[in-house]
Amino acid sequence: MEMLINGELIDLDEKIDVLNPFNNDIVGTVPLGNSEHIKKAINAANDAKIDLNNMSSRKISEALYNISNEISEKSDDFSKLITLETGKPISAAKDEVKRSVDTFKFAAEESKRIYGESIPLDAGIGGKGFLGFSIKIPLGVVGAITPFNYPLNLAIHKLAPALAAKNAVILKPSLSAPLTAIKLSKIVADYFPKGSMNVVTGRGSVIGDELVSSDLVNKISFTGGVEVGKRISQKAGMKKITLELGGNDPLIVLGDADLDEAVLGAVRGSYLNAGQVCIAVKRLIVDHNVADEFAEKITKKTLKLNVGDPLNPKTDVGPLINVEAASHVENVVNDAIDKGSQLLCGGERKGNIYMPTVLDYVKSEMPVVNSETFGPISPIIRVNGIEEAIKVANDTQYGLQAGIYTENIHHALKAAKEIDAGSVMINKQSTFRTDNMPFGGFKMSGLGKEGLKYAIEDMTRTKLIVLNTN
Ligand code: NAP
Asked: What is the DSSP letter of 103?
């Protein structure tokens, strides 16, 4: 597939293969763009600003609705492509496409609600007889950098609000899964002035760096890991940044919890997309009074999961993105077992597949839980009561989302108040997101919020206009 720069499809001799993580077959190739290509895309986006600003909000909204419809019509193609390039089970890929259709609809709705306000200037000294009102204007050019795990909806969470607010976009997708983003960008570009939607493929360390450092780019919206996020915040200079980074989300299960519901939440949260989700449940913090029963129930459910070919509609857990990712999970699980954790099921790697794994008697300081493990594992940390549960939940550099299962409203609200994370779910696991909610973590999990209304707010500037009526 080609890059899209200033309305032109660009191919190059130098290419990179995109592999199917399940069987390592080549799914497609993309050109390996360099700084010359990213500069061209930035200039094109910068030039497109005027035509884009001249589009009425009504036309922008119609365009976003039309894109939503087109994605819906092509949902089978999109789902299959997501599965082929990421290894995500087809059922989950279909869910991602459904949400993507919705994300564009939310953007279409929000594009009609970009309001300024009137300011009572006469409340200030010297303000008598002056009328003031603010308007929201676009930033100009938005650089969007996305990870491999949700190649469609996470790209849309950047380009849909950017275009809704009349900003031109340059998208740099993950090199592990760039094909879906290119297919999407071609559709989007047809509805906007030439140069408004560009997609450039190439190495993050080359073209990503160039995009982040450019003075012509007014905002970087990044989703990915903490290390790259830190680099972006150092290189971005005087531009806005939104960072949606990693997570190490806890799920607390107290002694009075509905255990069957908690187990269901834990299984869904730990194994969705083989655990390669920023808001996957990465630590199960379970009260010792119910830990034996919880461990038995979650092991039973884990053993029932279908593991294998992600194109099979019955598959629950597919491969990890590549063998390095699978080997990393294998290493941290083996390390935990060596240090005294008990393996209840799984613990085996078959190529890029890591079998869904339950570990009991895990300690907070073990690498399997003290950094973000992107894999299908359920590590149980046993605790005594709510105080210790919250302390363990907060014992991490991350703060994306969290969940607690309890029938005690006081304990639920205490956890909601005291867990240092962007969202806390009560009687639900952290793996919960609707596309209109404010989404984004605290601590090393990031800066700023996504969710259409919130992303649009961050992709506009406030201009004040003052009228002298004296
Ligand atoms: P990653 O390695 O950080 O890569 C993310 C993107 O950054 C890729 O497009 C990558 O390009 C690019 N990149 C690499 N170096 C760069 C640089 N110096 N400057 C600018 N861009 C650069 O992340 P990943 O492995 O794809 O995704 C997994 C991570 O994303 C996990 O930590 C996960 O928790 C996080 N994530 C967070 C959220 C959220 O909303 N909070 C959602 C999903 C995922 P290349 O592919 O060319 O290296």
From this structure: H
